Amino acid sequence: MSITEIRVPEMGDFKDVAVIEVHIKPGDDVAVEQTLIVLESDKASIDVPAPFAGRIASVELAVGQRVSKGALIATVEAAAAPGETRPAAKPEVPATDATPTPAATPSPAPGAAPDCDVLVIGGGPGGYSAAFRAADLGQRVILVEREPTLGGVCLNVGCIPSKALLHVAAIKEEAERLADHGVAFDTPTLDLDKLRNFKAGVVSKLTDGLKGMARLRKVEVVRGTATFADANAVDVALSDGASRRIVFAKAIVAAGSVPVRLPFLPDDPRIVDSTGALELPFIPERMLVIGGGIIGLEMATVYSALGARVDVVEQLDRLLPDVDRDVVEIWRKRNAHRFDAMLLGARVESVVAETDGLAVTTSGEGAGVRRYDLILQAAGRRPAAEALQLAAAGVTLDARGFIEVDAQMRTRNQNVFAVGDVTGNPMLAHKAVHQGHVAAEAATGLKSFMDAKIVPSVAYTDPEIAWVGVTEDAAKAAGRAIEVGKFPWAASGRAIANGADYGLTKLVFDKETHRIIGGAIVGPSAGDMVGEICLAIEMGADAVDIGKTIHPHPTLGETIGMAAEVAEGVCTDLPPMRKRG
């Protein structure tokens, strides 16, 4: 009979948290995963389960104590008592110099019982949201993720690290602008190692939290790469070199996307995609961004703030082509200092890697040869669906390589669902999360559908641009009669006080129904404000609904109400307007 200690495990972002419940006492028999204690952080209550079965020998914690990772909870007699069959603690395996190769898991026999109710492929926002929702609905869930941590591109090499760097860039530039208001700072110094560590710490905090939430929900996380073997099974090439076949009742594909690789670019460490750019290999003197979309402009903002001179080459005749022209033009003027050249209607014809730089030949506007120290290729992303061998499961792709799904996120195989970037544009984390919830609920038998009218977008540049729904140009191109309300922030007391009087809030209404169908904002916190426009569109609000909703003053958010008043011709914060008939 052996005595084994049970200690507080690593369960995400918490330390020095309170013990609020103790569910054991000496002499109790406990089963695997039975709750021993409950901890309470400022974010959630956390159950700490038994890692193995046994009989409690001593309890070392009491309600009210504060604990962190590694604190002793209890000691347990891990051997079975007479007359009982109780799993013993796993014996310690002595370390050896040689690491044996695990054997492959045998394939199940035809018609074998599934290993899980729901299998999720991909641990990004769509995948982990689907896995956690399915687990909350009582399903046995296995989540397959090829990377070492959960979170996908968004948390690890996308949304979150880029926003950490953009935050630093915004603070630096705002501090510099304060000199015009009488507060000047010394010239800032850049410590790249500290900046990289800050970014990594932000990412780690969130991915550790996901790890803890997966454990609390009893979601089994399998590290490896999955391919479909047939309509009800996948083969996983495990990260440790072994393989495993998993039979599922339902599956949700959330494999995400990968950057488009421009075939004419040479293989050179000075040519990076968004992942490479976020590693901050160095701060170049001159940088080229290929692509004038969100990713390209966000990274241009970061590198410019850190000291690089930046050029942008965009094949189309405008930046952010799906965004309202008015707000993009304001952004361009505000960012003129950032770019030596902004080449629109242009393209990169060739890149020659030389010892002292990268020689780039462009055609179209500003055609010529320029030299750069770093090139970011940000020409878009493509779905990561091809390697999954979806045909084996009876799942079809459209002409652009996206998985075809219905409103329940169900594919041609009624037991296989797909969410996120693999299902089509826009490739946005918040869309994937909602799709993940729908897929998990539908897989469980609930009548859940993806019926959102709109999906908002944000460019977290300086200033931010946020937009949603129908633009003025798109409405006119479709022959749709509209009314537009534009409120310039030059008439906003808060914007003037904040040095943001260049901003604009613009709303688009259907002329017949007066209901809002779109909107765009440029200025600080635009991304935080656009949610109100989203809600107004989803609820079918008209200009009167929005304008007569009392907004707090003085705020940037009240410009949404004022833009609606402009559309109605009743705004008193601007010069007299033409009365409506």
From TrEMBL:
The keyword Oxidoreductase is annotated on this UniProt entry: yes
SUPFAM superfamilies associated with the record: FAD/NAD(P)-binding domain, FAD/NAD-linked reductases, dimerisation (C-terminal) domain, Single hybrid motif
InterPro entries per the UniProt record, alphabetical: 2-oxoA_DH_lipoyl-BS, Biotin_lipoyl, Class-I_Pyr_Nuc-Dis_Oxidored, FAD/NAD-bd_sf, FAD/NAD-binding_dom, FAD/NAD-linked_Rdtase_dimer_sf, Lipoamide_DH, Pyr_nucl-diS_OxRdtase_dimer
Binding note for cofactor: Binds 1 FAD per subunit.
Domain (Lipoyl-binding): residue spans on this chain: 3-77
Keywords from the UniProt entry: Disulfide bond, FAD, Flavoprotein, Lipoyl, NAD, Oxidoreductase, Redox-active center
Bias (Low complexity) ranges: 81-102
Catalysed reactions listed for this entry: N(6)-[(R)-dihydrolipoyl]-L-lysyl-[protein] + NAD(+) = N(6)-[(R)-lipoyl]-L-lysyl-[protein] + NADH + H(+)
Entry's Gene Ontology molecular function annotations: dihydrolipoyl dehydrogenase (NADH) activity; flavin adenine dinucleotide binding
Cofactor(s) this protein cannot do without: (R)-lipoate; FAD
Region described as Disordered: 81-110
Note: The active site is a redox-active disulfide bond.
Protein name per Swiss-Prot or TrEMBL: Dihydrolipoyl dehydrogenase
Organism of provenance: Aminobacter aganoensis
Lineage: Bacteria, Pseudomonadati, Pseudomonadota, Alphaproteobacteria, Hyphomicrobiales
